[in-house]
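Give me structure tokens for this 191-residue protein.
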Amino acid sequence: MIKLITNWKNLNFIFFERCGIMTAEAAVSAYRIWQNTLDKIQLREADRDKMSWKEECTHALLEKRIFLSSMHCGKFRMLHEEFCNEPFYSKGLCKCIFIASWNSRFFLRMQNDLRLLAEKEAVNTEYMMVLGEKLMKNLPASERALCQMMYDFLKYPGKNPDESMLMCLSSPWVPIADNAIDASNVIDSLE
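Here you go.
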């Protein structure tokens, strides 16, 4: 039975060659592969340090396992990638996109509203807030609470709604609101 020594900072492939575990050529080849892998990992970490919050956002949310489904993640990515370079895109809007991506009706509404903002060459989300106020008047209680949450993300950047708002939601809506608060914390932590 071969015992593999895994001191990742200083693997000694020569040891394996001298013990007859592998040939000298195989030891050199294994060392080069190992070194190449380490170099790639260090490059990826260096690149992450240079990424803006917009570039790192989806990765950070995935890393924290905040998306409720792969479809939720896919819709979020679609809207995020389509609009993240628009001048009106902000962390607050990113949080709204997180919520809207969970529900097909919210998603389509958000996509249409964002395309309208892009066509108008908007530089902020004031128009979205006006649309949100109008929309909230005609929604059932749970949907209205989520829209209020989205409105608050836009109106009060860097702030989270109080978790007590979860109490006014019907049970199917609690997971998205709860995860939206977690997503908000993650997005706010990005620089």
